[in-house]
C-alpha cells in the first residue's frame, strides 16, 4: 500500500509540473500511455491517481476522451476559495506551535521570498500552507482541506501569472508568521483570511480578463 501511495503522489507531482511548464492546460486530455512512458509507472496506478484527482474535482472524466483538467466557473472559484479560507483558518486555530515548528515555518516563508520564478514560488507557497496547519488536531478537517487545496493549486498556476502579486501574497504570509510568533493567533487568522480573499479577488479578475 505504501508503494502504491508513493506512485500516486509521483503522478500528482508530475501533473503539477506539467501545469507549471505550460504543458498541461485546462481542458486538455491526459494521455495515459504518454504519462506512463514519461514517469515509468504502469497504467494501473496512474488510473488510480487520476481517479483520486477526479474525486478531488481537479480532473473530469469525459466519455470517449478520458481524463481532462476540469474547468472552474467563476462561481466555483469563489465557493472553493471561500471554503478553503474558512477551513484553513479553523485549522490554524487548532494548532499549537512549538519552537521547532516555527523554525520550519520561517524557513518555508524565507524560501517563498527568495524564489526566482513564479512557478517555484507557487510550489513553495503550497508547502507553506500545508505546513501551517499540518498539526491541526482535527484530522478529518485536514483531509478535506488537503483535497480542496490540491484542486485550487492546479488553478493557481493558470491564474496567478503576476510576480508582483505573488510578492504581495508572500508579504501577507510573513505577517501571519509574525503574528504567530507573538502568540497572537486571532490576528494571524484574520490576516490569513484576508490573504485568501486577495487571491479570490485576483483570480476573479483574471477570469474576467480571459472572458473579455
Give the SSE layout.
Layout: H1 2-20, H2 32-39, H3 43-55, E1 59-62, E2 66-69, H4 74-92, H5 99-114, H6 118-133, H7 139-159, H8 163-181, H9 185-211
Antiparallel strand pairs: 1-2
Helix pairs in contact: 1-3, 4-7, 4-9, 5-6, 5-8, 6-7, 8-9
What does this entry look like structurally?
This protein is mainly α and 212 residues long. The protein has two domains: 2-69, Orthogonal Bundle (Arc Repressor Mutant, subunit A); 74-211, Four Helix Bundle (Hemerythrin (Met), subunit A). 75% of the residues lie in helices and 4% in strands. It has a two-stranded antiparallel sheet. β1 (59-62) and β2 (66-69) form a beta hairpin. It is globular, with a radius of gyration of 18 Å.
The coarse overall form would be globular
Which structural category do the helix and sheet elements fall into?
A: mainly alpha
Mean pLDDT: 86
**What is the percentage of strand-forming residues?**
under 5%
Largest sheet: 2 strands, antiparallel
Rg from C-alpha positions? 18 Å
> What is the assigned CATH homologous superfamily of the largest domain?
GntR ligand-binding domain-like
Strand order of the largest sheet: 1-2
Helix content: over 70%
CATH topology of the largest domain: Four Helix Bundle (Hemerythrin (Met), subunit A)
**Number of beta-strand segments:** 2
The CATH class designation of the largest domain is Mainly Alpha
Stretches where pLDDT falls below 50 for ≥5 residues? Answer: none
Per CATH, the architecture of the largest domain is: Up-down Bundle
List the helices and strands in order. Answer: HHHEEHHHHHH
Amino acid at each position: 500500500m505504501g508503494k502504491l501511495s508513493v506512485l500516486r503522489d509521483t503522478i500528482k507531482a508530475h501533473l503539477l509540473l506539467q501545469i507549471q511548464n505550460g504543458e498541461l492546460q485546462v481542458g486538455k486530455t491526459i494521455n495515459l500511455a504518454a504519462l506512463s512512458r514519461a514517469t515509468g509507472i504502469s497504467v494501473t496506478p496512474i488510473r488510480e491517481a487520476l481517479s483520486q484527482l477526479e474525486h478531488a474535482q481537479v480532473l473530469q472524466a469525459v466519455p470517449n476522451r478520458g481524463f481532462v483538467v476540469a474547468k472552474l466557473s467563476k462561481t466555483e472559484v469563489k465557493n472553493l476559495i471561500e471554503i478553503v479560507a474558512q477551513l484553513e483558518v479553523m485549522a490554524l486555530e487548532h494548532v499549537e506551535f512549538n519552537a521547532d515548528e516555527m523554525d520550519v515555518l520561517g524557513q518555508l516563508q524565507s524560501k517563498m521570498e527568495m524564489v526566482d520564478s513564479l512557478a517555484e514560488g507557487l510550489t513553495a507557497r503550497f508547502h507553506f500552507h500545508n505546513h501551517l496547519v499540518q498539526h491541526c488536531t482535527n484530522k478529518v478537517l485536514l483531509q478535506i482541506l488537503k483535497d480542496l487545496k490540491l484542486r485550487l493549486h492546479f488553478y493557481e498556476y493558470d491564474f496567478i501569472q503576476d510576480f508582483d502579486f505573488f510578492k504581495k501574497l508572500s508579504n501577507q504570509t510573513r505577517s501571519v508568521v509574525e503574528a504567530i510568533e507573538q502568540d497572537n493567533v486571532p490576528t494571524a487568522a484574520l490576516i490569513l483570511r484576508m490573504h485568501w480573499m486577495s487571491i479570490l479577488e485576483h483570480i476573479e479578475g483574471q477570469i474576467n480578463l480571459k472572458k473579455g
